[in-house]
What we know:
Strand content: 15-25%
Number of helices: 15
Pathway: Amino-sugar metabolism; 1,6-anhydro-N-acetylmuramate degradation; Cell wall biogenesis; peptidoglycan recycling
Organism: Alloacidobacterium dinghuense
Structural class: alpha/beta
Keywords: ATP-binding, Carbohydrate metabolism, Kinase, Nucleotide-binding, Transferase
CATH topology of the largest domain: Nucleotidyltransferase, domain 5
Shape: globular
EC number: 2.7.1.170
Bound molecules: adenosine-5'-diphosphate, magnesium ion
Amino acid sequence: MTVAGVMSGTSADGIDVALVQIRPKGNGLKLELIGHEAFPFTPVLRKVILSAMDAKSTSTADLARLNWRLGQAYVEALRATVKRHPVNLQLIGCHGQTIYHQGATAMYAGRTVACTWQIGEPALLAAELGVPIVSNFRPADMVAGGQGAPLVPLLDYVQFADNKRARVLQNIGGIGNLTLIPPASGINKLIAFDTGPGNMVIDALMQQLFQKSYDRSGKIASRGHVIESVLSATLKHPFFRAKPPKSAGREEFGAAFAERLLQLCQEFGGSNEDAITTATALTADSITRAFKEFVQPRLKSNIPVDYIVSGGGAKNKTLMAMLQQRLEPLGCNLLESSDAGIPVDAKEAMAFALLAYYTWHRRPANVPSATGAKRPAILGQITHA
Length: 385
Ligand SMILES: Nc1ncnc2c1ncn2[C@@H]1O[C@H](COP(=O)(O)OP(=O)(O)O)[C@@H](O)[C@H]1O
Ligand SMILES: [Mg+2]
């Protein structure tokens, strides 16, 4: 089957599309990436998405409009991708844009509620592309008792499981998350969780201090110094201590968190560059801490570990150098997913192509050990053309 996966993450930088050929092979599946393309959001669309996510002031009417406007953006991205890579597209898996995610239950209107909301009207995609769409993947896992995230571990397992080597798949999008696949283990032995901020805090500070949406190649971060006292103060956030499974978003590491980090840097007398370097070190340190506390204790000593990085953060050279410096002494071999055959921008989009394929075949695709679900669940809704 030829399946397109469409991903737009918490960075709200744009849309990634992957075209994937999926074939049965032995007991498993073989995935071949036919092509992948990235489409940045226009500044005005990015602005309304960000204001809807960090929502202090949005209206129901705006959310409804954004649902349809995002549907149009996904249609345009898919059209352009299929034009560049002509294929006979059969199915689309579209993650949508997360507007709100609360994986754990909390009191609301007299009952405990957990919730998640991804938008981007699938009826538009089905009508315009003429193929079925699978969307709204997360709720079925939450109903099964999970956090609705992470869902990428299925792809991680299919692509990267190894008999001899432990593999850690570290994605660095807006949020950082990892999947551990111990050597020669079944999918029920995976662990996966969010490690904390990925690029989100760096991006917020770049916007405020340098009027840029991100720190290209980590250039600004390479010019500043880490302010250790600020780093250790921000690492006290209870999220880093919490045991997996756990998930994070703008609710934890959005504008308010970035503002506090900046304030601490300024009180110390740090430069704007120092604030970016310190935010970059926070990402590297939180990833390292997650590995040390929650991953390493589960591995036999002397097992070789490939630490495979994907997502936009893999292009931040300063961040990658910080990770190398911290993780190599712990016995990790740091790689980019591109070195292991999957371009850093394509992995999450490929995952949603695979998840759609599972749903189409009525197969459960959540990984209960990763999401905390009590049972397997068939994910998402199908909108027919
Ligand atoms: N060339 C680059 N140099 C440094 N950082 C980059 C580069 N390209 C992308 N990024 C970072 O990656 C982010 C997007 O990563 P992505 O994997 O798409 O995350 P998400 O899934 O949250 O959308 C950008 O917001 C930016 O911070
Ligand atoms: Mg993105």
